[in-house]
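Let us begin with a simple case.
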Amino acid sequence: LSILKSIYKTAHNKDFEKDYLCSSVNDKKQFRVCLEKDLEEWQNLIIRKNCDNKNLYYETIREKKAKYDFEGSVITTNYTNFAEKITGLKTAYLHGKLDWFEDINSKEIKLLSDFSDEAEIMPFLFIPSGVKPVISLKQIEQYKIALEAFTQSDLLCILGYSINSDDEHIQNFIRERLNQKRRVLFFLYSGDKDFTYMKNDYCAMFGNSQYLEIKKIEKSQDFRTGLENALKAF
Protein backbone atom coordinates (compact mmCIF):
# COMPACT_ATOMS: atom_id res chain seq x y z
CA LEU A 1 0.00 0.00 0.00
CA SER A 2 2.84 2.39 0.77
CA ILE A 3 4.25 1.79 -2.73
CA LEU A 4 0.87 2.45 -4.33
CA LYS A 5 0.48 5.65 -2.33
CA SER A 6 3.87 6.87 -3.48
CA ILE A 7 3.27 6.05 -7.15
CA TYR A 8 -0.19 7.63 -7.14
CA LYS A 9 1.07 10.80 -5.49
CA THR A 10 3.97 11.05 -7.94
CA ALA A 11 1.67 10.53 -10.93
CA HIS A 12 -1.25 12.75 -9.81
CA ASN A 13 -0.02 14.72 -6.81
CA LYS A 14 -3.09 13.55 -4.89
CA ASP A 15 -3.80 11.44 -1.83
CA PHE A 16 -4.26 7.77 -2.71
CA GLU A 17 -6.62 6.78 0.10
CA LYS A 18 -8.75 9.92 -0.03
CA ASP A 19 -8.91 10.44 -3.78
CA TYR A 20 -8.65 6.91 -5.17
CA LEU A 21 -9.85 4.39 -2.63
CA CYS A 22 -12.89 6.42 -1.61
CA SER A 23 -14.03 6.76 -5.20
CA SER A 24 -13.35 3.15 -6.20
CA VAL A 25 -16.08 0.67 -7.04
CA ASN A 26 -17.33 -1.69 -4.34
CA ASP A 27 -17.27 -4.85 -6.45
CA LYS A 28 -14.05 -6.73 -5.68
CA LYS A 29 -13.55 -8.16 -9.17
CA GLN A 30 -14.13 -4.80 -10.82
CA PHE A 31 -11.82 -3.12 -8.33
CA ARG A 32 -9.05 -5.57 -9.20
CA VAL A 33 -9.49 -4.91 -12.92
CA CYS A 34 -9.46 -1.16 -12.33
CA LEU A 35 -6.42 -1.24 -10.08
CA GLU A 36 -4.43 -3.32 -12.55
CA LYS A 37 -5.24 -0.93 -15.39
CA ASP A 38 -4.73 2.17 -13.28
CA LEU A 39 -1.40 0.98 -11.91
CA GLU A 40 -0.09 0.63 -15.46
CA GLU A 41 -1.46 4.09 -16.29
CA TRP A 42 0.16 5.70 -13.23
CA GLN A 43 3.56 4.27 -14.05
CA ASN A 44 3.25 5.35 -17.70
CA LEU A 45 2.25 8.84 -16.57
CA ILE A 46 5.34 9.12 -14.37
CA ILE A 47 7.49 8.00 -17.31
CA ARG A 48 5.88 10.55 -19.66
CA LYS A 49 6.41 13.31 -17.12
CA ASN A 50 10.09 12.53 -16.75
CA CYS A 51 11.32 10.89 -19.93
CA ASP A 52 12.27 14.14 -21.67
CA ASN A 53 14.56 14.85 -18.74
CA LYS A 54 18.03 13.95 -19.92
CA ASN A 55 19.08 13.46 -16.30
CA LEU A 56 17.24 10.12 -16.06
CA TYR A 57 19.62 7.18 -15.82
CA TYR A 58 17.24 4.83 -17.67
CA GLU A 59 16.92 7.40 -20.46
CA THR A 60 20.69 7.46 -20.79
CA ILE A 61 20.73 3.67 -21.17
CA ARG A 62 18.08 3.86 -23.90
CA GLU A 63 20.04 6.58 -25.69
CA LYS A 64 23.27 4.55 -25.61
CA LYS A 65 21.43 1.41 -26.73
CA ALA A 66 20.20 3.27 -29.82
CA LYS A 67 23.69 4.60 -30.52
CA TYR A 68 25.64 1.36 -30.02
CA ASP A 69 22.87 -1.11 -30.92
CA PHE A 70 23.83 -3.57 -28.18
CA GLU A 71 21.82 -6.50 -26.91
CA GLY A 72 21.22 -6.50 -23.21
CA SER A 73 18.90 -6.93 -20.28
CA VAL A 74 18.14 -5.30 -16.96
CA ILE A 75 18.25 -7.03 -13.59
CA THR A 76 16.22 -5.16 -10.99
CA THR A 77 15.04 -5.58 -7.43
CA ASN A 78 12.56 -2.71 -7.89
CA TYR A 79 8.88 -3.54 -8.24
CA THR A 80 7.98 -0.89 -10.85
CA ASN A 81 8.16 -1.29 -14.63
CA PHE A 82 10.26 1.85 -15.19
CA ALA A 83 13.46 0.07 -16.25
CA GLU A 84 11.68 -2.14 -18.77
CA LYS A 85 9.45 0.61 -20.19
CA ILE A 86 12.15 3.25 -20.59
CA THR A 87 15.14 1.19 -21.73
CA GLY A 88 13.18 -1.27 -23.88
CA LEU A 89 15.44 -4.05 -22.59
CA LYS A 90 14.34 -7.47 -21.36
CA THR A 91 13.99 -7.16 -17.59
CA ALA A 92 14.37 -9.67 -14.78
CA TYR A 93 12.31 -8.82 -11.69
CA LEU A 94 14.18 -10.75 -9.03
CA HIS A 95 12.01 -9.64 -6.12
CA GLY A 96 8.59 -9.47 -7.76
CA LYS A 97 6.52 -6.86 -9.57
CA LEU A 98 3.65 -4.58 -8.63
CA ASP A 99 1.09 -6.18 -10.92
CA TRP A 100 1.96 -9.77 -9.95
CA PHE A 101 -0.17 -11.43 -7.29
CA GLU A 102 -0.09 -14.82 -5.62
CA ASP A 103 -3.04 -17.05 -4.78
CA ILE A 104 -2.57 -17.91 -1.11
CA ASN A 105 -3.96 -21.43 -1.60
CA SER A 106 -2.86 -22.56 -5.07
CA LYS A 107 0.37 -20.48 -5.13
CA GLU A 108 -0.39 -19.40 -8.71
CA ILE A 109 1.25 -16.13 -9.81
CA LYS A 110 -0.94 -14.07 -12.13
CA LEU A 111 -2.21 -10.60 -12.93
CA LEU A 112 -4.96 -9.18 -10.75
CA SER A 113 -7.67 -9.51 -13.39
CA ASP A 114 -6.88 -13.19 -13.98
CA PHE A 115 -8.08 -14.26 -10.53
CA SER A 116 -11.64 -15.26 -9.67
CA ASP A 117 -13.70 -13.13 -7.29
CA GLU A 118 -13.28 -15.76 -4.57
CA ALA A 119 -9.51 -16.07 -4.82
CA GLU A 120 -7.52 -15.02 -1.78
CA ILE A 121 -4.52 -13.18 -3.09
CA MET A 122 -1.60 -11.07 -1.95
CA PRO A 123 1.08 -9.04 -3.76
CA PHE A 124 3.94 -11.15 -5.08
CA LEU A 125 6.73 -9.00 -3.66
CA PHE A 126 9.81 -10.07 -1.75
CA ILE A 127 10.80 -7.70 1.02
CA PRO A 128 14.45 -7.35 2.12
CA SER A 129 15.32 -10.68 3.69
CA GLY A 130 18.25 -13.04 3.80
CA VAL A 131 15.97 -15.88 2.65
CA LYS A 132 14.37 -15.77 -0.81
CA PRO A 133 12.19 -18.91 -1.16
CA VAL A 134 11.49 -20.25 -4.64
CA ILE A 135 7.81 -21.10 -4.87
CA SER A 136 6.98 -20.50 -8.52
CA LEU A 137 8.21 -21.13 -12.06
CA LYS A 138 7.84 -17.38 -12.63
CA GLN A 139 10.72 -16.81 -10.22
CA ILE A 140 12.86 -19.35 -12.04
CA GLU A 141 12.08 -17.60 -15.34
CA GLN A 142 13.25 -14.30 -13.86
CA TYR A 143 16.42 -15.83 -12.46
CA LYS A 144 17.14 -17.43 -15.85
CA ILE A 145 17.11 -13.98 -17.49
CA ALA A 146 19.35 -12.66 -14.71
CA LEU A 147 21.72 -15.63 -14.82
CA GLU A 148 22.27 -15.22 -18.54
CA ALA A 149 23.13 -11.56 -18.00
CA PHE A 150 25.44 -12.28 -15.07
CA THR A 151 27.35 -15.03 -16.88
CA GLN A 152 27.24 -14.13 -20.59
CA SER A 153 27.28 -10.36 -20.96
CA ASP A 154 30.48 -8.59 -22.01
CA LEU A 155 29.93 -5.88 -19.43
CA LEU A 156 27.84 -5.82 -16.26
CA CYS A 157 26.98 -2.30 -15.05
CA ILE A 158 25.57 -1.81 -11.57
CA LEU A 159 23.77 1.45 -10.91
CA GLY A 160 21.69 2.77 -8.03
CA TYR A 161 21.92 -0.46 -6.12
CA SER A 162 23.41 -1.01 -2.67
CA ILE A 163 24.38 -4.60 -1.99
CA ASN A 164 23.69 -5.66 1.57
CA SER A 165 23.48 -8.83 3.66
CA ASP A 166 19.90 -9.46 2.51
CA ASP A 167 21.07 -9.88 -1.08
CA GLU A 168 23.67 -12.58 -0.73
CA HIS A 169 22.25 -14.35 -3.79
CA ILE A 170 23.11 -11.33 -5.94
CA GLN A 171 26.54 -11.00 -4.31
CA ASN A 172 27.27 -14.61 -5.24
CA PHE A 173 26.19 -14.07 -8.86
CA ILE A 174 28.61 -11.15 -9.09
CA ARG A 175 31.44 -13.12 -7.44
CA GLU A 176 30.95 -15.95 -9.91
CA ARG A 177 31.13 -13.50 -12.81
CA LEU A 178 34.37 -12.03 -11.48
CA ASN A 179 35.77 -15.55 -11.02
CA GLN A 180 35.05 -16.12 -14.71
CA LYS A 181 37.21 -13.03 -15.46
CA ARG A 182 34.29 -10.96 -16.71
CA ARG A 183 34.08 -7.21 -16.12
CA VAL A 184 31.83 -5.60 -13.54
CA LEU A 185 31.44 -1.82 -13.50
CA PHE A 186 29.97 -0.24 -10.36
CA PHE A 187 28.62 3.29 -10.50
CA LEU A 188 28.59 4.51 -6.91
CA TYR A 189 26.67 7.69 -6.14
CA SER A 190 28.48 9.14 -3.17
CA GLY A 191 29.93 12.24 -1.60
CA ASP A 192 33.67 12.64 -1.11
CA LYS A 193 33.52 11.50 2.51
CA ASP A 194 31.82 8.18 1.81
CA PHE A 195 33.27 7.09 -1.50
CA THR A 196 36.62 5.70 -0.32
CA TYR A 197 34.95 3.76 2.47
CA MET A 198 32.28 2.34 0.14
CA LYS A 199 34.82 1.48 -2.53
CA ASN A 200 37.00 -0.38 -0.04
CA ASP A 201 33.93 -2.18 1.28
CA TYR A 202 32.96 -3.42 -2.19
CA CYS A 203 36.52 -4.44 -3.00
CA ALA A 204 36.66 -6.46 0.22
CA MET A 205 33.28 -8.02 -0.54
CA PHE A 206 34.38 -9.19 -3.98
CA GLY A 207 38.01 -9.98 -3.29
CA ASN A 208 39.49 -6.81 -4.81
CA SER A 209 39.27 -8.39 -8.27
CA GLN A 210 41.12 -6.77 -11.18
CA TYR A 211 37.90 -7.18 -13.18
CA LEU A 212 35.96 -4.98 -10.76
CA GLU A 213 35.92 -1.28 -11.63
CA ILE A 214 34.26 1.26 -9.34
CA LYS A 215 33.38 4.72 -10.62
CA LYS A 216 32.16 7.61 -8.52
CA ILE A 217 29.16 9.57 -9.78
CA GLU A 218 27.76 12.75 -8.27
CA LYS A 219 25.45 13.75 -11.11
CA SER A 220 23.84 12.10 -14.10
CA GLN A 221 26.49 13.47 -16.47
CA ASP A 222 29.11 11.40 -14.64
CA PHE A 223 27.07 8.29 -15.47
CA ARG A 224 26.56 9.33 -19.09
CA THR A 225 30.29 9.84 -19.55
CA GLY A 226 31.23 6.66 -17.69
CA LEU A 227 28.81 4.50 -19.65
CA GLU A 228 29.88 6.09 -22.94
CA ASN A 229 33.54 5.33 -22.24
CA ALA A 230 32.76 1.77 -21.18
CA LEU A 231 30.76 1.08 -24.33
CA LYS A 232 33.45 2.57 -26.57
CA ALA A 233 35.80 -0.10 -25.29
CA PHE A 234 33.65 -2.71 -27.07
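The second case is a distinct protein. As before, the sequence precedes its C-alpha coordinates.
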Amino acid sequence: MSGFKKGLKDGIPIALGYLSVSFTFGLQGVKGGLSWWETVLISICNVTSAGQFAGLDIMLSGGGFWIEMACAQFIINLRYALMSISLSQKADKSLSGIHRWLVGFGVTDEIFVMAMGNIGEVSRQYMYALGTLIGAAAGKILPEIVISALSIAIYGMFLAIIIPPAKKNKGIAMAAIFAALLSCCFKWLPILNKVSGGFSIIICTVLSAGIMAALMPVKNEEDGQC
Protein backbone atom coordinates (compact mmCIF):
# COMPACT_ATOMS: atom_id res chain seq x y z
CA MET A 1 0.00 0.00 0.00
CA SER A 2 3.02 2.32 0.34
CA GLY A 3 3.22 2.71 -3.44
CA PHE A 4 -0.51 3.44 -3.65
CA LYS A 5 -0.34 6.06 -0.88
CA LYS A 6 2.65 7.75 -2.51
CA GLY A 7 0.81 7.80 -5.83
CA LEU A 8 -2.18 9.50 -4.22
CA LYS A 9 0.09 12.05 -2.58
CA ASP A 10 1.95 12.81 -5.82
CA GLY A 11 -1.34 13.05 -7.68
CA ILE A 12 -2.75 15.86 -5.51
CA PRO A 13 -1.17 18.75 -7.47
CA ILE A 14 -2.27 17.14 -10.75
CA ALA A 15 -5.82 16.80 -9.49
CA LEU A 16 -5.94 20.41 -8.28
CA GLY A 17 -4.58 21.67 -11.57
CA TYR A 18 -7.11 19.68 -13.57
CA LEU A 19 -10.07 21.02 -11.62
CA SER A 20 -10.01 24.28 -13.54
CA VAL A 21 -9.49 22.48 -16.85
CA SER A 22 -12.39 20.07 -16.31
CA PHE A 23 -14.60 22.89 -15.11
CA THR A 24 -13.89 24.94 -18.25
CA PHE A 25 -14.44 21.96 -20.55
CA GLY A 26 -17.76 21.16 -18.89
CA LEU A 27 -18.95 24.74 -19.31
CA GLN A 28 -17.95 24.87 -22.97
CA GLY A 29 -19.55 21.52 -23.73
CA VAL A 30 -22.89 22.40 -22.15
CA LYS A 31 -22.81 25.88 -23.67
CA GLY A 32 -22.21 24.32 -27.09
CA GLY A 33 -25.33 22.18 -26.82
CA LEU A 34 -24.03 18.93 -25.34
CA SER A 35 -25.70 17.36 -22.33
CA TRP A 36 -23.82 16.94 -19.06
CA TRP A 37 -23.47 13.18 -19.52
CA GLU A 38 -22.06 13.63 -23.03
CA THR A 39 -19.33 15.93 -21.75
CA VAL A 40 -18.52 13.47 -18.97
CA LEU A 41 -18.40 10.60 -21.49
CA ILE A 42 -15.95 12.55 -23.65
CA SER A 43 -13.71 13.11 -20.62
CA ILE A 44 -13.81 9.41 -19.72
CA CYS A 45 -12.97 8.26 -23.25
CA ASN A 46 -10.28 10.89 -23.84
CA VAL A 47 -8.38 11.94 -20.73
CA THR A 48 -6.12 14.46 -22.49
CA SER A 49 -7.35 18.04 -22.22
CA ALA A 50 -5.89 19.07 -25.60
CA GLY A 51 -7.70 16.19 -27.30
CA GLN A 52 -10.94 16.97 -25.51
CA PHE A 53 -11.03 20.64 -26.48
CA ALA A 54 -9.95 19.91 -30.07
CA GLY A 55 -12.62 17.22 -30.40
CA LEU A 56 -15.26 19.51 -28.92
CA ASP A 57 -14.44 22.25 -31.42
CA ILE A 58 -14.74 19.79 -34.32
CA MET A 59 -18.08 18.47 -33.08
CA LEU A 60 -19.56 21.91 -32.51
CA SER A 61 -18.41 23.06 -35.95
CA GLY A 62 -19.91 19.98 -37.65
CA GLY A 63 -16.58 18.52 -38.78
CA GLY A 64 -16.18 15.03 -40.24
CA PHE A 65 -15.45 12.00 -38.10
CA TRP A 66 -12.76 10.18 -40.09
CA ILE A 67 -10.90 13.03 -41.76
CA GLU A 68 -10.97 15.79 -39.15
CA MET A 69 -11.71 14.09 -35.84
CA ALA A 70 -9.58 10.96 -36.25
CA CYS A 71 -6.61 12.79 -37.76
CA ALA A 72 -6.71 15.57 -35.16
CA GLN A 73 -6.83 13.14 -32.24
CA PHE A 74 -4.05 11.02 -33.74
CA ILE A 75 -1.72 13.99 -34.18
CA ILE A 76 -2.52 15.60 -30.83
CA ASN A 77 -2.18 12.39 -28.82
CA LEU A 78 0.74 10.84 -30.74
CA ARG A 79 3.22 12.19 -28.20
CA TYR A 80 1.76 9.89 -25.55
CA ALA A 81 3.07 6.89 -27.47
CA LEU A 82 6.56 8.34 -27.03
CA MET A 83 5.92 9.00 -23.34
CA SER A 84 4.55 5.49 -22.77
CA ILE A 85 7.59 3.88 -24.38
CA SER A 86 9.87 5.88 -22.09
CA LEU A 87 7.72 5.20 -19.04
CA SER A 88 7.73 1.44 -19.72
CA GLN A 89 11.49 1.41 -19.09
CA LYS A 90 10.88 2.68 -15.55
CA ALA A 91 8.09 0.26 -14.65
CA ASP A 92 8.75 -2.67 -12.30
CA LYS A 93 7.61 -6.26 -12.84
CA SER A 94 4.19 -5.66 -11.28
CA LEU A 95 3.28 -3.33 -14.16
CA SER A 96 2.85 -5.94 -16.88
CA GLY A 97 0.18 -7.45 -19.10
CA ILE A 98 -3.24 -5.85 -18.95
CA HIS A 99 -1.99 -3.36 -16.37
CA ARG A 100 0.23 -1.72 -18.98
CA TRP A 101 -2.77 -1.24 -21.23
CA LEU A 102 -4.83 0.30 -18.44
CA VAL A 103 -2.06 2.58 -17.18
CA GLY A 104 -1.10 3.54 -20.73
CA PHE A 105 -4.64 4.76 -21.38
CA GLY A 106 -4.36 7.21 -18.50
CA VAL A 107 -0.92 8.62 -19.33
CA THR A 108 -0.93 12.43 -19.62
CA ASP A 109 1.87 14.99 -19.68
CA GLU A 110 1.62 15.62 -15.94
CA ILE A 111 1.37 11.96 -14.94
CA PHE A 112 4.35 11.12 -17.16
CA VAL A 113 6.54 13.86 -15.67
CA MET A 114 5.58 12.96 -12.10
CA ALA A 115 6.24 9.24 -12.64
CA MET A 116 9.57 9.83 -14.40
CA GLY A 117 10.64 12.17 -11.61
CA ASN A 118 9.97 9.47 -9.02
CA ILE A 119 13.12 7.92 -7.57
CA GLY A 120 13.50 4.28 -8.57
CA GLU A 121 11.03 2.12 -10.45
CA VAL A 122 7.28 2.70 -10.41
CA SER A 123 4.77 0.00 -9.52
CA ARG A 124 1.25 -0.55 -10.82
CA GLN A 125 -0.15 0.51 -7.43
CA TYR A 126 1.69 3.82 -7.71
CA MET A 127 0.50 4.44 -11.27
CA TYR A 128 -3.12 3.54 -10.48
CA ALA A 129 -3.13 5.93 -7.53
CA LEU A 130 -1.37 8.65 -9.53
CA GLY A 131 -3.92 8.35 -12.30
CA THR A 132 -6.98 8.34 -10.03
CA LEU A 133 -9.61 10.60 -11.62
CA ILE A 134 -11.63 13.33 -9.94
CA GLY A 135 -15.26 13.81 -10.95
CA ALA A 136 -15.92 16.99 -12.88
CA ALA A 137 -18.67 17.80 -10.37
CA ALA A 138 -15.99 18.49 -7.75
CA GLY A 139 -15.38 21.80 -9.44
CA LYS A 140 -18.90 22.93 -8.59
CA ILE A 141 -18.27 22.90 -4.85
CA LEU A 142 -15.40 25.39 -5.12
CA PRO A 143 -15.71 29.19 -5.49
CA GLU A 144 -15.06 30.51 -9.00
CA ILE A 145 -12.04 32.52 -7.82
CA VAL A 146 -10.44 29.32 -6.47
CA ILE A 147 -11.14 27.47 -9.72
CA SER A 148 -9.41 30.25 -11.68
CA ALA A 149 -6.42 30.29 -9.34
CA LEU A 150 -5.93 26.53 -9.66
CA SER A 151 -5.08 26.96 -13.35
CA ILE A 152 -1.51 27.90 -12.37
CA ALA A 153 -1.06 24.72 -10.31
CA ILE A 154 -0.06 22.68 -13.35
CA TYR A 155 2.71 25.13 -14.28
CA GLY A 156 3.95 25.24 -10.72
CA MET A 157 4.01 21.45 -10.64
CA PHE A 158 6.15 21.27 -13.79
CA LEU A 159 8.64 23.75 -12.36
CA ALA A 160 8.80 21.84 -9.08
CA ILE A 161 9.61 18.65 -10.99
CA ILE A 162 12.13 20.07 -13.44
CA ILE A 163 14.18 22.45 -11.27
CA PRO A 164 15.52 19.99 -8.60
CA PRO A 165 17.03 17.44 -11.03
CA ALA A 166 18.22 20.28 -13.30
CA LYS A 167 20.26 21.67 -10.43
CA LYS A 168 21.99 18.32 -9.95
CA ASN A 169 22.49 17.39 -13.62
CA LYS A 170 23.72 19.90 -16.19
CA GLY A 171 22.51 17.68 -19.03
CA ILE A 172 18.91 17.79 -17.79
CA ALA A 173 19.09 21.57 -17.45
CA MET A 174 20.48 22.00 -20.97
CA ALA A 175 17.88 19.61 -22.42
CA ALA A 176 15.06 21.57 -20.76
CA ILE A 177 16.43 24.90 -22.00
CA PHE A 178 16.96 23.59 -25.53
CA ALA A 179 13.45 22.11 -25.61
CA ALA A 180 12.01 25.45 -24.44
CA LEU A 181 13.90 27.33 -27.18
CA LEU A 182 12.68 24.88 -29.81
CA SER A 183 9.13 25.25 -28.54
CA CYS A 184 9.41 29.03 -28.91
CA CYS A 185 10.60 28.55 -32.48
CA PHE A 186 7.54 26.44 -33.28
CA LYS A 187 5.35 29.07 -31.67
CA TRP A 188 6.69 32.24 -33.30
CA LEU A 189 8.77 31.49 -36.41
CA PRO A 190 7.10 31.45 -39.84
CA ILE A 191 6.45 28.01 -41.36
CA LEU A 192 7.31 26.31 -38.07
CA ASN A 193 4.26 27.88 -36.42
CA LYS A 194 2.13 25.96 -38.91
CA VAL A 195 3.15 22.64 -37.36
CA SER A 196 0.49 21.17 -35.08
CA GLY A 197 0.97 21.21 -31.33
CA GLY A 198 1.21 17.42 -31.12
CA PHE A 199 3.98 17.13 -33.70
CA SER A 200 5.90 20.13 -32.35
CA ILE A 201 6.02 18.54 -28.88
CA ILE A 202 7.32 15.27 -30.35
CA ILE A 203 9.97 17.07 -32.43
CA CYS A 204 11.13 19.19 -29.50
CA THR A 205 11.30 16.17 -27.21
CA VAL A 206 13.19 13.90 -29.60
CA LEU A 207 15.66 16.57 -30.74
CA SER A 208 16.48 17.95 -27.29
CA ALA A 209 16.77 14.50 -25.69
CA GLY A 210 18.73 13.04 -28.62
CA ILE A 211 21.21 15.90 -28.87
CA MET A 212 21.88 16.02 -25.13
CA ALA A 213 22.14 12.22 -24.95
CA ALA A 214 24.87 12.41 -27.60
CA LEU A 215 26.68 15.39 -26.04
CA MET A 216 26.27 14.48 -22.37
CA PRO A 217 25.47 10.76 -22.07
CA VAL A 218 24.53 9.30 -18.68
CA LYS A 219 26.82 6.57 -17.44
CA ASN A 220 25.43 3.21 -16.41
CA GLU A 221 25.94 2.84 -12.65
CA GLU A 222 26.58 -0.91 -12.94
CA ASP A 223 29.32 -1.05 -15.58
CA GLY A 224 30.30 2.61 -15.96
CA GLN A 225 29.38 2.62 -19.66
CA CYS A 226 27.19 5.25 -21.34
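The chain is about 70% helix and 0% strand. Residues 154 and 160 are 10 Å apart (CA to CA).
Keep these points in mind for the review questions at the end of the chapter.
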